Each structure stands twice: as structure tokens, then as C-alpha cells.
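residues and backbone:
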Amino acid sequence: MKYKGYEAIVEFDEVDELFFGSVINTKDVISFDGKTVDELKQSFKTVIDEYLEDCRQEGKEPDKPFSGQFNLRISPELHRKISLKAKKQNISLNAFVEQTLEKTV
């Protein structure tokens, strides 16, 4: 499920006959539930809206979904090898790494 850039995974509790979910692309713990799919969807939207409003009222910056940027530390030799490979393909180092990662996930 996705809403305002936040993504969640959903499970079903057979004992309580309840769907429950948690937001996975933020460090803050955000969870929600519902007896029906419609309730679940509404609960997800409500909890995200409440989270954003709570952060606004507290003057806190909400934990944003992933930005698409991360630092990576590798050996200088590997850095050299992938830079050369990217140049041979006439693409940037970022594009090469992104394409390589995309192939593996």
C-alpha cells in the first residue's frame, strides 16, 4: 500500500480476523489495522495524515520516505573498476550502480 510517499506491508491475523499493517519506509513506527480492506485503507491514510499533523504541531520534521540517496563505502580498487566499466558504457557512475542494483533486486 502507498499513500503520500509512505509504503506499508499488510498481514492478516486469522485469530482476530483483522488486517494489520506497518509503514516500512520510515524510521518512525507507524501501524494501522482494519476488519475490511476498505477499513484498512482508510486506517492507513488516517494514520499517515495524523502522523504528519502531529509532527507539524510539534515542530518536528516528519521522517520522510527514502530520498533515493545513500552513501556507499567501497574499496578504492572496486571504485576504480566500476568507474571504468561505467565509462566504457558511456554512462555515469550513478547510472551504472543504479542499473546494477536494479538487476539484483
